[in-house]
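Here is a complete protein record:
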Amino acid sequence: MIGIDKEKVNEDLKYAGYNLMVTSELDMEPLQIYQTYHSLWKIEESFRITKSYLDARPVYVHKKETIYGHFLICYLSLFLLRVLEIKVFKNQINSYDLIDFIRDFRVVNKGDGSYINISRNQTVNEKVKKATGLTNLDALFLTEKEINNLFQNCILLDS
C-alpha cells in the first residue's frame, strides 16, 4: 500500500528553511561559521569572472615574464572590479552588470565637441544611473563637458 507518512512530513517541515552545516571548527561562533561559509561563493565567483570574462585562460604567451604579466593584468582587473562593486557602488550593482556596462558603454565623437551615446544595454545604464545619480548617463547627445563630468563624478563617488 502506498501512502504518505504524515509524521515524517511534519518532522521535515520543522526544519524547512534552515541550513545544516557540518564543520570541524569548534572555537567559532555559529554566526561566524555561517558568514565564512556564505562568503565562499564570492571566491568561486571571482574565479568564474577571471576565467570567463577577463580571459585568464587559455594563455597564448610562452615566456615566464609575459605569463606573469598576463595574470597580473587579470588579477588587477578583478581587483578594480571588486573595488567598484563594493566600495564605489556599495554592492548595489554586481560584477556581471559592471562588466556589461563597461563593455557596452560607447560614445562616438561627432567632431563638433559633442558625442553620441550608442550604448545598447539601457537596463544596466539605469542601475548605474540610479546608484550614481548621473542623470545624463543615457542621454543620446552629450557635450565634451558632460563626458568629462561623467568621469569626474565617477572618481568623486569613491571619495
About this structure: The chain has a mean pLDDT of 82. Residues 28-88 form one domain.
